[in-house]
Amino acid sequence: MAPSDATTRRRWDLVLPHAERLRRLVRGQLGNSVDVDDCVQEAMLRTVSFANLDEGRVAAFLTATVLRLCVDRHRERERQLRLQRRLAVAEGTSGPEEMICEHHLGRWLLTQAMSLPDRERQVVLARARGLSTVDAARHHNISVKAAESAFTRARTRLRGLCEAAGPEPVTR
After folding, report:
1. Number of other residues whose CB lies within 10 A of the CB of residue 109
2. What are the tens digits of pLDDT across the range 117-151?
């Protein structure tokens, strides 16, 4: 059952003095001034129209409502970001031809990596297996700085080999 007109006016008189406090609270959570005003107005409307409102606890009700609305906004924003990332990944999905070319290039790079000096080869192959530079350094008993340098040199040499081979390196 909706509150009567007299009750609604009384509730607005109780709610309106909290508007600035709520704005400060929401501004700290969201930052965006449009979202701040929307959340505060929504919280005040929900409070005024809530059938079983304990008018002695309006401040606590408003605070809880506005914080829940902030959480809802944050969740919606995160949901939208995840959707945008998924769409970007889906648009970048390779077709079978590209996958074959990438596999072919990967095999060619692996054969080229085998001709690198020992330390560079060890580090670049460890990184290709998914190890971090720190893990590769531990695995090969070298310093992290030495592993980083070896990886940088290996990557530079492999790029040079790719450039020298032309647009599409050929293997047989």
Report:
1. 17
2. 999 999 999 998 888 989 999 999 999 999 999 99
